[in-house]
Design goal:
With 150 residues, the chain is of the alpha+beta class. It has 4 helices and 7 strands, in the order βαβαββαβββα. It is 30% helix and 28% strand. It is globular and about 50 Å long. Mean pLDDT is 87; it is low at 2-6.
Length: 150
């Protein structure tokens, strides 16, 4: 005799599908770390990226997509050679600016960055020195949409 599963959604239904391993959504953020310190704009991005990853974790859980965050500290020599590499975020292997249609520019920073022109993002007429949570979440959702399978 065939078996049926009672699940509360009707008289009977098919059992739920077997759980599969989550698909990873890698997020990589790098910034200058000098003497254990970073600049205020990178500090604000750090708080934003941590909140964004928490938001994405909750939002993407039903889709079985798990964001992971890797933080990379750049040393002073690396930063001096390419200051706009500091405060840079990649999501699923692509720069955040590609996901959200932002342009990369720079402006003079402060503190540990010295007189270098550090990374800024410009989108829809607004320039951001620190990357806001909303842009990180938007980029994460765009990247996650490419991971959803039928």
């Amino acid at each position: 005799m065939p078996t049926t599963t009672t699940c509360g959604c009707g008289p009977s239904c098919d059992p739920p599908p077997a759980t599969t391993a989550a698909v990873t959504l890698p997020i990589v953020w790098q910034r200058l770390v000098s003497g254990g310190e970073t600049c205020p704009r990178c500090g604000s991005t750090q708080a934003a990226v941590e909140r964004a990853v928490a938001t994405l974790t909750e939002v993407l859980r039903p889709l079985n997509i798990e964001p992971t965050l890797e933080t990379i500290g750049l040393d002073q020599d690396t930063f001096d050679q390419a200051p706009t590499e500091s405060n840079r975020i990649w999501i699923a292997g692509r720069p955040l600016e590609e996901w959200v249609g932002a342009q990369v520019s720079g402006s003079q920073c402060c503190s540990v960055c010295g007189d270098n022109s550090c990374r800024t993002l410009r989108i829809d007429g607004t320039t951001y020195e620190g990357v806001p949570e909303s842009l990180i979440v938007k980029a994460g959702l765009a990247a996650a949409s490419t991971l959803v399978t039928a």
